């Protein structure tokens, strides 16, 4: 059964003025239920984790203390993109637990998902770009610490570089970070992933898919990962306000198909987090995200 993390806090804890397109966290599960792709039993509600799951493995204790006490400086708060609040911190922690739980479900079923997550701009000691805590990094480290994994591949296909994830795992031989992103897009200063593929503005379906097909196959063959984390942001769409690439909705779907088919064929468990998506038309965001779930059901279940 495809298991999917979802909680009310994913949307309702966000401050006014930041709801669009964050309302996708409510509309996406509604669409998946309406069309029959998922049923209520597919969803699970993650708890709020204890702090030691977060700071003892990935984030610094000092940074978690600042979040808990709401004592980020004005500059630190501005970099996150959100006004800091207790509700927002709880939301981010619950996303962390959702991704950790989904990782465990992926080990059991082959594939699992988090409606939110993909918070790849969160560093060891700071947040950036609408990310306070890095759910992918915490989940990957959990596999290393609790299940002794030694070969993890992070496939980050959001339009923005996974700079926080790259910083967290710099020099870590257990995790290979692969980020394929817009060359001229945020962040202005890129960190160094194990493999960065920078794409020119306007890159469309054919070129994008050919590049992904080439590099993903090589990475899997060379590194033989035991687990893959897939950041499936749909801000690669041509219609995205922040994206600058040129993919169609169908091209984005084929991107997801390539990743998920590679996982299935090679018997590699995969946990998928949603990442960004900022098209003006919310229907396009929902359709592109929903395709990821449809493919997961089609290929794994």
UniProtKB/TrEMBL annotation:
Transmembrane segments: none annotated. Gene3D superfamilies: Histone deacetylase domain. The keyword Hydrolase applies. One of its GO terms (molecular function) is hydrolase activity. Residues 20-281 form the Histone deacetylase domain. The keyword Ion transport does not apply. CDD domains: HDAC_classIV (cd09993). GO terms for biological process: epigenetic regulation of gene expression. Belongs to the histone deacetylase family. This is Histone deacetylase. It comes from Mangrovivirga cuniculi.
